[in-house]
Each structure stands twice: as structure tokens, then as C-alpha cells.
Amino acid sequence: GLPAALPTLPLELTVLYNSLLFTVGTSDSAIEGEADGIRQGLLRVLEACGACGQDLSTEKLWQKVLREVTVKELQAPLHRLGALQAAWWLAARRLGSIAGLFQLLSTDEDTGRDRCSEGQNELLSLLKAWQVPAERASLPLVQNAEELKEILCTAAAFLQGLQELEAGNFPTALSLLQEAAGGFCSKKVLAQIYTCLGCCAQRMGKPQIALQHLKRALQVDFQCLPALSHAAAVYHELGEVDTELQVLALLYEALEKKPPASASSSSYFLIQTELLVHTPMLTSLLRHHHPSEVKYLLAQRCLQDGRVTDAVEHYLDFLALLQEGLQQQVPLDGNSTLPRIPEVFLEAASALEQAGRHQDAITVCEEVIRRTTDLIPRMLRVEERLEQLECPLPGAGLAGGLLSQKKESLCCLAWRTAGYLHQGWAWAKLGQSKEAITQFSRCLSDLLRVQLHGPATELIENLPPEVEVLQKIRLLSLIGRGMQFLELGRHKEALLDFQHGLQVSPGDPAAASYLVQALWKLDRKQEAAAQWQKLSQSSPGEQERKGRSLPLYLFFCLEQAVFPYSETLASTIQEYLGTAAQDTS
């Protein structure tokens, strides 16, 4: 409540500076909001000089104080408060405000000595050009302005590097992040900067440089596990499966253990870079995976690479984690690498089938079928293209909700029918053709729930992804059931299934080849030869329409549907055609 007085203001501003530093440094959270203490300090300075500025914004207040207050004893305390204000604005990502403030804090001599040349970053140039006034030895500081300047330079480079990285300006981002890496920060932050450098290099298409940065991050702070997960992604991109799996296994082991204290700097500062730089981009790049996510990645990569035994082990471990309440531990949101749980079950079934554990695969699929039974309506009407309505217009909340419900129903139907499809193939592998036919028929019966409405051409060329998956499941079920009919000598029924398969996917090479075989077994050799000639003359592009990538759990079924007797059938038909030509002549 004492009136402001010029003789005591240097001490008052120094106490304010120290108290704000203690307030920030003793809290575990990042700097947020406005620094009201700084504003009150500036108003006290104006009051002592016989001026006021209550109605001014903080930026205007700084302009008024630095232009009108010329008392020499106040310059150093005001510069310190200015650096502290810059820390608050940096945390709020108000880079323009910081640049304006340091243009006022820097003298003409400073800006002339280190003027921003073309290609240099303006804010970093202003921060580096700023000359900290000499401190009075009688006023102790908990953190001097020179240290604060170094931290501001590092944080400004780091923050702008992240912004450029998010904007896709990778060369600029790389330069700024390299500037930050050479700055003043703790080992923990330095490891984070190297991780961001690795991600930037990866997006620039430089995987080897990315790996160098990521390895450097781990050398600086071995607890920087996001660097390990990004390294696994780079090895995946390079196709180095063995190394990728080793890194994922190491990451899983590290996540399972209780982490020791993170690396830190040798000296303690109240204002640190980690308090100033906190953006969604940084949060995304440094996201820590849950151990179960890494376990799933191990399972998925092994399955994709044909390491069936390892894949089965990892999938079963993951399913065991599900029993322990995984869904409560990991939010299955857009940031998670985990797919929907039924898809994981189906991938596990696929791995079990490939490992020859067909009965176990049937059991896993039964769980998917059981859990999705009550989630599917009796009839699903699909109007033209669903993806056109993924982002409904404002005010269309009800329509958006109905669309979301319809898409969810289609997903549930895909999982349920895929369960039947896998069971059909599993029973076929066990030599139980009749049971296999039953499961394929259940799959096809369920698929009758979907009714496609819209122009025929559009429905064929622009299928929504959910419906495209269902159409592929329908094709694979028809081929699978047709194959079992052939096994049982029921050639006419097999022929009908292959014909329906070609209606679902015109030109499909597997369905067309099996159709030729069925015609041949029915002694309709002339028709078989005509169909074979048509098939052999068609190009691969005509045989298989390009579509979206299919779910991993369908890949095994696709392999099972491939016609295995192409060369034998071709030889037989060519021999027939040769004989027919001789008879005609």
C-alpha cells in the first residue's frame, strides 16, 4: 500500500522478479495465463514517474514504460522484467509480442551490431542482439538475466522449429531445431529436440539421418522412449524387419519396467525450456506408448512378415492383457496405435490358422461372433457414398449421429462375417467340408442384410470402405464355399457360387479360374475353354480392380482363395483346344 518511489523501485522490481521466478520454478506445470505481477510492477514504475496506464494492454504498457522512463537505475530491473515477460509470452506462443518487446529493449547500437540478415530468424536475431544491462552487486538474483536470455533463445528456436515442422516447412524446421540443440537446456529437453530432429529428417525422406538424431537422443537421455518408438517406425520404413522387431522388443521391455528418474541438467534453474515449450505437436511427437500398444505392434509386424509362431505368441499375450482390463488402461482414441478390439481378435485367428491351430482359431472367431450378434440391425440400407457424409454440416447433428451409427453397424457386420469366413477356412483345413460350407453359408446369409442403393456404376466404382470390405468377404466366402462343393463333387452348386463371385467382383482371377474348373468338371469343356481364353487375354488391371487396402485379418483368406492349379488347367485346356482344332480341320 506504500506509494511508489523512484529510490526504492530498483529493489521493489528485483523482489518482484525473484518472487515470480520462485512462483514459476516451484510449480510442476508449464507457464500459463498472464503475468499480473509484471503488469502491477510496470504500473508502479509509471506511478513513480507521475504517469498512469491502467487502461492500456500489457503490450502498450511496455511500450509506454520503455519509451518514457529513462531513469538509469531502472534500466536493469526493467530489462530483467522484460525477459521474464518474454518467457510468459513464449509459453503462450505470442512470438510477435516478444519481437516487439525486444525491439524496444535493444538499443540502436545492439540492433546494428547483429542486424537480422536475409535467411536469419528475426526473433532469434533480436534475442541474441539484446545486451543485458550491468547488474548491481548489492541486489541478489535467483536467476540472472544472461541465463534467462540463453534459455529464451533455446526455447524460441525449439518452439519455432516445432511450428515449422507442423506447417511442413521441413528445411526451416531442421535449421531451427539444430539451433535449439546447440542451446542452453537440460539433457531431457535436448533428447526431445533430437527426437524432433529425427522426425523432421524422416519426413524429409532422409531415414539414415533420422536414425542418427534418434540415436543421439537416446545417448543424451536413455529414458527418452519416444525416440525408440520413432526409430522402430524408421526401420519399418526401411524394410529392416529384424532391427525393427528388436527395437520394439526393447521398447516393450523398457515400458514394462518402472522408469528411473529422467536425466536433468547439472545445475538447477527456476525458468527452464520445458516450462516454455508445450504445444500439441510436441505432445504428439513425444507421446509415450502403453506397453500393450507395443505388444500389438510386435504381433502385427510378425504376422505381416510371416513370422507366424512369434505372431501367435504376441497376439495371445495381448489377448491376455485384454482380460486384465486393458480397455480401462488405454484410451482407444485417435492417438492410439491399437485397432478396434474385434480386429485384433480376427488377426489373432488369422495367425492361429497359419500356425495350424485351426480349432483355436475357431474359438477366437466364435468370441467375435458372439459379441457382435446384438449390435447389427436386421437390415442395413447404404445410400450412395458414406464418406461424403463423414463431416455433416452444422446443425445436422441427428444426421451425423445416424451416419455414425450406420458406419458402426457396417463395421460390426464386417467383423461378424469375417469371423464366419475364418471359421469356414479353418474347418476346411480340418477336412470338415460340410461344416466349412455351413460357416461360409452363415457368412453369406448375414451379408444379405446390406442393401446397396444408388447408381450401379457409382456403387461399383465408389464403394464406401466398409462396404468394400463386406464385398471382399462376400467374394471370399463364395469362393471358399464353391471350393468345398467341388471337394464334395457338387459341381453345379460350385459353379453357381463362382458365377455369383464374378458378379460381386467382375474379372476376379480366382473366381474366374475356379469357374473354368467347375465347367470342366461338368463336362462343359467348350464353355470352360472360352472362359479360360477370356481370362488369359485380360490384363491384370482388368482382373483385379484397384481398391483401398484391406484389413490385415483378410490377407490369409485372400491367400487361401488363390487358384492353385493354373498351370495344370492351362495345359489341359490348351491340349483340348489343339485337339478340337485338328478335328475341325
TrEMBL record:
GO terms for cellular component: Fanconi anaemia nuclear complex. This is FANCG protein. GO terms for biological process: interstrand cross-link repair. PANTHER family: FANCONI ANEMIA GROUP G PROTEIN, FANCONI ANEMIA GROUP G PROTEIN FAMILY MEMBER. Gene3D superfamilies: Tetratricopeptide repeat domain. It holds the Pfam family TPR_16. The keyword RNA-binding does not apply. The keyword Transmembrane does not apply. Keywords: TPR repeat. TPR repeats lie at residues 475-508.
